[in-house]
Give the backbone structure.
Amino acid sequence: MVISEGLLKWVMRLYPPLLFQRIWVVKFLSGYQGVDVRIRKSFLNKNYNNSIFGGTLFCAADPFYPLLFHQLLTRKGYKLIVWSKSATIQYLKPATTNLHFSIRLNDSDIEQAEQVLNTAGKFISSFPIDIYDKDGEICVSLMNEVYVRNLNFIDTTNI
């Protein structure tokens, strides 16, 4: 389903797994080429070390690359299945303040995905996310592996 950037922003803001973890979508960029996200530290996501729970940080990063690819490519006419296939996360520093991160898809990322979807039917690639504290220091670094399958792809090599 294709929806506007503004509507998806509010759907994600009010989606309970994100809302109760204090994960806030600031904005989706025009054409779904990126997203800005904040994570607010609160008693709902604070661990016994007084830092943000690692599960909250992982939850914050998980959905956004698949959402961007799904909305961007669906707008181009593709019928898709998209999900996070895997992720690796490194906690570099305790997250003791509010956090933020931005994700951007550049034109070459999109072109590569389209080329692979048109020739092989599925695109799998890893993308980085760095999550920063209020001082601009990286607290978390992850790699999110995204799986995209073109449901309209017909493999003609086996015919």
Remarks:
- The radius of gyration is 17 Å.
- The chain has a mean pLDDT of 95.
- Residues 39 and 139 are 12 Å apart (CA to CA).
